[in-house]
Specification:
Elements: E1 2-5, E2 11-23, E3 26-40, E4 46-52, H1 60-65
Length: about 90
């Protein structure tokens, strides 16, 4: 997770990122979700949702072995409004 300052001056988690592995001293990551700002509320607070990048994490096999199942479209970027279950 990476917090950033956004337009209303607050800090929010703007990306949910998977650490995949290390290659020497280099850490390889991939962004799984990103915060998409959609506007502001009546108090000037930023509104938005997390959208999928379309990349599937490498830990899904471990989830399956543990009996954890996610909806098939959980990481599908075709839903621009984000997930109802996030």
């Amino acid at each position: 997770m990476r917090p950033d300052r956004i337009r209303d001056g607050s800090r929010k988690i703007t990306y949910i990122t998977e650490v995949q592995h290390m290659e020497g001293n280099t850490i390889t990551t991939q962004d799984l979700f990103k915060f998409v700002q959609t506007g502001f509320d009546e108090n000037g607070k930023a509104l938005g949702h997390f959208a999928c990048t379309g990349l599937k994490p490498s830990f899904l096999d471990k989830f399956a072995l543990a009996g954890i199942e996610l909806p098939e479209d959980f990481f599908d970027e075709s839903n621009p409004e984000g997930r109802d279950y996030m």
